[in-house]
Amino acid sequence: MVHRPDTLEHAPLGRDSAYPEQYDAGLLYPIPRAANRAPLGIEEGALPFVGEDEWHAFEVSWLNGRGKPIVAVARFRLPASSPHLIESKSWKLYLNSLNQTRFASQTKVEETLVRDLSSAAGASVSVELLGVDDSELAPQRLPGECLDDLDIEVSDYTPSAAHLTTGDEVVEETLHSHLLKSNCPVTGQPDWGSVLIRYKGPKLDREGLLRYLIGYRQHQDFHEHCVEHIFTDVMQQAKPEELLVLARYVRRGGLDISPWRATPGLTPPSLLRLARQ
């Protein structure tokens, strides 16, 4: 059974945790999205975006019916409309609870993951189990123009929407940066990532946009909320007709998280994974 807490008070993140010996869906720790969305003016049931949180787990294993270990890489997709995200360490502990559990088939493993994760998130979660040499895991590059070679001076390492300025020209373009860094709100550990912004609307000042993204360097928040923060700030400041914000965060503890948020009709590049993930 999945617990549904309202705070991080009892979350396993930042605490010493024994690795489980038995399968236990109760290890999953849901966190309501609403508390972090409210300060951004985002109302549940009236989201200004569509999107998903895409997770990859590289430490997935179970036993087949004869006790032989099977290993895989798992891809999970949680809808942004789910009322809960799932705290990452609890997810890792849950996956480790499968290690000594026998399953009759891979299909049974997938069915178990779908059931437990969907219950925790409060919405349907999709699950794919990939082979460790699957071609879908091959590294690729972010599309569009990289901002990282801009020679700018930076002194502000907290996000400030004031840096997001526009001109009169209307453009449709894709920009990205590998300089995204935020920090875990519980442990303070750094979360490194790359971010892609695709939009149609008044042209964003490149230097201002890069300063804004670098501003997350000392910001403490979950990956999913950082992306929603970026989306909300760009929409409010630049007022584009279309907007997609995608972050590809570097793996930590065997898990990587890649949230994306977009105006309806836009979708992220498919099967996109970066070398440092």
Automatic annotation (TrEMBL):
The gene is queF. Keywords: Cytoplasm, NADP, Oxidoreductase, Queuosine biosynthesis. It is found in: Cytoplasm. It catalyses: 7-aminomethyl-7-carbaguanine + 2 NADP(+) = 7-cyano-7-carbaguanine + 2 NADPH + 3 H(+). Its EC number is 1.7.1.13. Pathway: tRNA modification; tRNA-queuosine biosynthesis. Homodimer. Belongs to the GTP cyclohydrolase I family. QueF type 2 subfamily. NADPH binds at S88, K89, R252, G253. Its main location: cytoplasm. NCBIfam families: QueF. Substrate binds at I86, E87, S88, H223, E224. The keyword Cytoplasm applies. PANTHER family: NADPH-DEPENDENT 7-CYANO-7-DEAZAGUANINE REDUCTASE. The keyword Oxidoreductase applies. The active site is at C184, D191. This is NADPH-dependent 7-cyano-7-deazaguanine reductase. Pfam families: QueF, QueF_N. It comes from the Bacteria. Residues 19-129 form the NADPH-dependent 7-cyano-7-deazaguanine reductase N-terminal domain. GO terms for cellular component: cytoplasm. Catalyzes the NADPH-dependent reduction of 7-cyano-7-deazaguanine (preQ0) to 7-aminomethyl-7-deazaguanine (preQ1). The lineage of its organism: Bacteria, Pseudomonadati, Pseudomonadota, Gammaproteobacteria, Oceanospirillales. One of its GO terms (biological process) is tRNA queuosine(34) biosynthetic process. Transmembrane segments: none annotated. HAMAP family: QueF_type2. InterPro entries: GTP-CH-I_C/QueF, NADPH_dep_7-cyano-7-deazaG_red, QueF, QueF_N, QueF_type2. GO terms for molecular function: preQ1 synthase activity.
